[in-house]
Amino acid sequence: MSENISELTDLLRNLEAVNSDIQGSAIVSVQGLPICSALSRDVNDGIVSAMSAAILSVSERAVQELARGILQRILIEGIDGIIILSRAGENAILCTLAKPDASLGMVFIHITSVSKKIATLLD
Amino acid sequence: MSENISELTDLLRNLEAVNSDIQGSAIVSVQGLPICSALSRDVNDGIVSAMSAAILSVSERAVQELARGILQRILIEGIDGIIILSRAGENAILCTLAKPDASLGMVFIHITSVSKKIATLLD
How far apart are CA A80 and CA B66, in angstroms? Predict the structure, then answer.
């Protein structure tokens, strides 16, 4: 494991440690390939990465077409929890899992903070 | 215009009338084709419909892969506003535009209410 990947994995583990509403996270490339993951072992990282990049890409086009300004994040809300997709710099997407009743204000603050660190390592 | 389309258009116009945080809406088929729209005239309904269906379809797979339960809705947050995608019965998707600082609790209540009426007309 390269030093960068090890640092990125630490960032993801720390995200769960500082906010108990966060249940897992992964960094994927904007091309849809896995970079590193702190998701549960039964999750297929390849599928999650491809889906994250696809949703982000189409959403960036959608906010443009519908005059919503620059994309900040995407929330995919399921009954049992939320998937949050956001940019982490030019090259990466952060996919974060949160509890269904998560305090989203704090979750967004922690996501923004870690995204900046990811960007520093990958941009 | 068929009677159903006229009723659906009235539902969309009413959605904006009852909630000033809602700035427009459209009903699209799950296959990605436009059904009816109360979006501004400069929006390309065909592109919005195709993108809405694509995002919803991939998101339904994502909540399944990431054990988030049944998909409730997708929020695409831009700096100048929010796009909310949700099912309106078996055949349709409701795409709603809201202000960036919208009171989302009330917006969701109005979306749920109109989605049930859309489902009654289209299912």
Answer: 10
